[in-house]
Design a protein that fits this description.
327 residues, Rossmann fold, four-stranded parallel beta sheet, six-stranded mixed beta sheet, alpha/beta
Amino acid sequence: MTSSNILVLYTGGTIGMQASASGLAPATGFEARVRAQQSHQAERLPNWSFRELLPPIDSANMSQDNWLAMVEAIRQGTEAGCDGVLVLHGTDTLAYSAAALSFLLLGLAVPVVLTGSMLPAGAANSDAWPNLFGAMQALHNGVAPGVHLYFNGALMHGARVSKLSSEAFDAFQVVPRQRQGTRLSELPAAIDFRQPRQPVNLLSLPLVPGLRASHLRALLDSGVQGLVLECYGCGTGPSDNAELLEVLRAAHARGVVLAAISQCAQGHVEFGVYAAGSQLASVGLISAGGMTREAALGKLFALLGAGLAQDEVERLFSLDLCGERAE
């Protein structure tokens, strides 16, 4: 789908930061800088309008409320006639936002592309303008509906990407993971992008040697609605710790959604391979397959935030909604 009239949604981040007494800080007024720089671009770009989400933030401060504000701004922009959206965002949580928006914008008929930069616009040898205008050019040339991340010349699936470097210009990549899943045949109205969402008490926790049942109990007793448990290998954990397993079982019984991902960068969860994995499945954990942490958290937020019951969340979580579970 080619875009000729795009909304540029500025949230802050390194791309628009300027020097302050305490270091680089988010700054307003970025539209004027973009328009001034556009005059130096040889490529033909689409028409674009600009909107700032105020105040602009360092993406280290990104929250669920910010995600919901982005969704609302994107909805308003498309209703006003925009046929593509470019979100300018800081890199620290860019992959989390790309994943969350992938599930919050299900059913949206126009493409959404997120980008940012490792160095601020105006810095020597910055990647800011190549990323920003490269993303605009990609939208102009044609991008499929859905959420994507553009960085260092690559257009990537929004729910498959992770940040792998804190310095390199190719910091974002789609890590090879086994993706197998049944694609959702028809989008339920309850998770369409027009559906209001509420904040959700979510967390991700890596399994580590020495994790105690008391640690897990304290976490789950804090009101957590969904937990992404980062398991070993293909979905194993301390199966000989009956107390820890009972804590998980009790949490699931009272409605907490428990999802398992692999800690391995190229891993996937397959509970039946080891008895230790089968034990986790038996207490209520659902497999995220080869989904990333970012995708698992974003997907749970979109489902739980829509007010769905535990069993419906688990059913939809196990299906492929936008390409996060299947190629």
